[in-house]
Amino acid sequence: MARRSRLTDADFERLLMFRDGLRRFLRWSEDQAKAVGLTGTQHQLLLAVRGHRGPPSIGEVAQHLLLRHHSVVELVDRAVAAGLVERIHDVDDQRVVRVRLSDSGVRKVEALAGAHLEELSRLRSQLAGLWDDLPEPAV
After folding, report:
1. Most exposed among 9, 25, 28, 78, judged by the fewest C-beta atoms under 10 Å?
2. 116 is a domain residue
3. What is the pTM of this model?
4. pLDDT digit string (tens) for 56-73?
5. pLDDT tens digits, one per residue of 3-60
6. Distances, alpha carbon 39 to alpha carbons 27, 32, 114, in Å
C-alpha cells in the first residue's frame, strides 16, 4: 500500500469528516430500521438477501455481512422467527441452505431502500469535495 510521505492537518481533517459522515449515515440508517420495526443487523440481512442475484446461501450472506457462518445461522434463525426470511434448499445441492425474503421482509427492505438512496445522494454532495485535491494513487 503506497502512502504519502507526509500527512498534513488537511489530511486528518478530511479523514475526520469522512469518518463522521460514515458514522452519521450508519446512525441514521439504524434509526430508519427501528422505525419499521427492524434492528440494524436485520436490515443488513434483508439488504444482503435482496441485493444478491438469486437467493444467497448462508455462506454468501456471511461474506456480505462480514460475519462468521455460525453467527449468520443465528441471525437467520431469529429472522425466520420474526417472519422476515425463509430458508430454502438449493435446487442443485440439497446440502446448501439458501435464504429468501418473506413478503414482510420484502415490504420492509423496500420501505427502507428509497430513503437510503436519497440519503446517500445527499451525502455524496457533502463528501465529494473531500477528494478533489488528492493525488491519484500510484498503480
Report:
1. 9
2. yes
3. 0.84
4. 999 999 999 999 999 999
5. 556 888 988 998 998 899 899 999 999 999 999 999 999 999 999 999 999 999 999 9
6. 12, 9, 18
Does residue 135 fall inside a structural domain? no
Which CATH number covers residue 70?
1.10.10.10
Range of 31's domain?
11-44+54-121
